[in-house]
Every structure is written in C-alpha cells, then in structure tokens.
From TrEMBL:
Entry keyword set: Isomerase
Lineage: Bacteria, Pseudomonadati, Pseudomonadota, Gammaproteobacteria, Enterobacterales
The keyword Isomerase is assigned to this record: yes
Name used for this protein in its record: 5-carboxymethyl-2-hydroxymuconate isomerase
Gene Ontology molecular function: isomerase activity
Length: 37
C-alpha cells in the first residue's frame, strides 16, 4: 500500500556547489530541478 524511496551518495561523489543543478523525477509526476545559488 505504499512506496519506499531510498537515496544515498555513491562513492567518489563530491559536495554540491554554487551553480550545480539537482534534478529528480518520479514516474507520472512533473520533474523538478533545483539550482544551487
């Protein structure tokens, strides 16, 4: 009756910095994009 969404950081990935854009999506929903300022 529900969904579990797990997130994590794979090895070798650096920190987010100014100017990065983080995107995400879930099937059936509008994608989202967040720009780090």
């Amino acid at each position: 009756p529900g969904e579990l969404i797990f997130t994590g950081t794979p090895e070798g990935v650096g920190a987010v910095v100014k100017g990065d854009v983080i995107t995400g999506n879930v099937e059936g929903l509008t994608p989202i994009a967040v720009k780090i300022v």
